């Protein structure tokens, strides 16, 4: 048992070492950190305070939301307590029966806090109120009303901006877990599948990609994250996609492609990362968004193609079966780009193929789980 456990631990560590660090995760987050930033440069985040707040995590936004209101209520409560104390309105000052108070119903710090809360939130229970006998109280209630309105507008705008962030709309755009390399329309292509999980269209969608790789110059200089443009397209082009149903994006592997020199044997050893970007505008909110994902060599399958997922029902509706969204089948494919264009019959897989053990087979017994369009 101990030997089996140690073997599993070694296999797990070997698998982790074989996987290179990602710059972009599968859900689009960038794996990068900034160090040695000068202290003076950090004031730029304070100057651009709105973006700093919007990009903060929800836990910090909620903490700031609660703290801002509670702190301002308490600060103004101290000011109201000071005004009441100077006017002799407090209980321990024993005001006479004919005394004209600045604030009705404020005889202590707790009452001052409640009055501050009621003033700023415009509750007004009717028990506590400012009187016209104290000019300082009239001025302070005016200042707190204006200050409270400013805080309310800022907080409402911050919460709405967080909720309506384009990143949330991008969550309903999904890419296939794997990329495949196979023949397509007489060319060797690298294909990726993308789907819009909502029925609302994405306006002006555009796709582009970058290949990140580590290169070395003849002088021995190493360049990390060297970026190379990779053109992706669909059958109708690469601009203004009709993005209502899942699309298969493909890149033609020709002499100008960075994948042309790679083979089925060397692909897994390459130090590369393919980052794909999809830009567009949401039809319902008119907000711009960007969806990102990446593929490392272990996620690029040579000699496979995606299963079809679009069919037509008896009711003449187009049906999308998402259970096959990331499923692939082996197809006849050349070992490399040069072999595909220059050596006839030089293939990696036969058309008979074999089962792909990397994907889970999902049985669908109820058609209600199928998205209809």
UniProtKB/TrEMBL annotation:
Belongs to the inward rectifier-type potassium channel (TC 1.A.2.1) family. It comes from the Eukaryota. One of its GO terms (molecular function) is ATP-activated inward rectifier potassium channel activity. GO terms for biological process: nervous system development; potassium ion import across plasma membrane; regulation of monoatomic ion transmembrane transport. It catalyses: K(+)(in) = K(+)(out). It is found in: Cell membrane; Membrane. The record marks 152 as: Role in the control of polyamine-mediated channel gating and in the blocking by intracellular magnesium. InterPro entries: Ig_E-set, IRK_C, K_chnl_inward-rec_Kir, K_chnl_inward-rec_Kir1.1, K_chnl_inward-rec_Kir_cyto, Kir_TM. The keyword Transmembrane helix applies. GO terms for cellular component: monoatomic ion channel complex; plasma membrane. This is Potassium inwardly rectifying channel subfamily J member 1a, tandem duplicate 6. It is a multi-pass membrane protein. Keywords: Cell membrane, Ion channel, Ion transport, Membrane, Potassium, Potassium transport, Transmembrane, Transmembrane helix, Transport, Voltage-gated channel. The chain crosses the membrane at residues 60-83, 138-161. It comes from Anabas testudineus. Residues 24-166 form the Potassium channel inwardly rectifying transmembrane domain. Pfam families: IRK, IRK_C.
